[in-house]
Amino acid sequence: MKKYSTDWYWYYTINSVLVILILFPIYWTFISSVKKPHELITSEPTFYPHTWTWQYYKNIWYSGVTGDGWIDKSQDNEQVKDSKVVGNKAQSQADKSYRNPRSIQRAFFNSVIVSAGTIILTIIVTTLAGYALTVFRIPFKEVIFILLILPILVPGISLIIPLYKLLKELGLTDSYLGLILLHTTGMLPIGVFMMRNAFASIPGSLREVALLEGTSELRIILTVMLPLAIPGLLTVMVFAMYQSWNDYVLAFLFTNTPEMQMLNVALAKIAMGGSQFEIKWGSLTAGSMISFIPIIIFYTLLQRYFVRGITGSAVKE
């Protein structure tokens, strides 16, 4: 494309508009999280905060979420005391079990644990499966590969009931392992597809030379094949992180206790507003920004390999 030509101007104009459309919601969420209450809720919103405040971030990080909506730590203590005064022991115990000071912190680290576990397990399973389907002579190998990819066509929501029954029988509901297994299973089709294509793009002669030198198959994977398949591997990591970190449906249905609450579920409770139907916009936007940060950092660090892995999976040399 010739610089400063008509096509050049159209290319950068269209892309600039697309970038603005994509980044504007993030920008608006951020400025909403640092505005004072009188600027945040007004009939004449501004595109920048006149007075900056980080109080919402402090409030949400050191506060709790209940089934009825959002409460802060001081409110939680007052409500517990009130329930003791009333003397309704059963209701008091129920309230205590549902109130969890600093539950946003706990929900954040719960999401970190589940995402990290999903990434690790997905890498192990998809790497071994993609390698086996690429280099080994397996009967009906192509049929097996197609069957592994076919679940992409099945709506995940249609599997909720059988999955819940299965995890209930195994005693894995309301646990880290249960969510990790669910997310890893959901990642298998696209993960195996990408890793198989990543290994297929590596010359087979490298493996043959390593075998002639007496190298074991596992060592070949770790020292020869895997370093050359890094773009595909990191692409799978990005997809696994995105799926597990942004999940709401599985986290909501398969966890029951406040201690196992995921970050998106905690933020949804703020958005729902509870029994008083009051949405805490400052806390909600601050919590949303907190949830953005890990995925943005993760993608930024792996962006170069992510693009290379996507193109490498699409075009086989």
Keywords:
single chain, 317 residues, mainly alpha, MetI-like fold, two-stranded antiparallel sheet, 15 helices, 72% helix
Provide a descriptive summary of the structure in words.
It contains 15 helices and two strands. The chain has 317 residues and is mainly α. It folds into two domains: 1-53, no CATH class; 103-314, MetI-like fold (Orthogonal Bundle), CATH 1.10.3720.10. A two-stranded antiparallel sheet has the order 1-2. Strand 1 and strand 2 form a beta hairpin. The protein starts with 5 loop residues before the first helix and ends with a helix.
- When the domains are counted, the total is 2
CATH class of the largest domain: Mainly Alpha
Identify the strand order in the major beta sheet: 1-2
Roughly what is the average pLDDT, rounded to an integer? Answer: 80
Gyration radius (Cα, Å) is 25 Å
Q: Short summary of the structure?
A:
With 317 residues, the protein is mainly alpha-helical.
List the helices and strands and how they pair.
Elements: H1 6-33, H2 37-40, H3 55-61, E1 64-66, E2 69-71, H4 73-86, H5 89-98, H6 103-135, H7 141-149, H8 160-170, H9 176-200, H10 204-212, H11 217-228, H12 230-245, H13 249-253, H14 263-272, H15 281-314
Helix pairs in contact: 1-15, 3-15, 6-9, 6-12, 6-14, 9-12, 9-15, 10-11, 12-15, 14-15
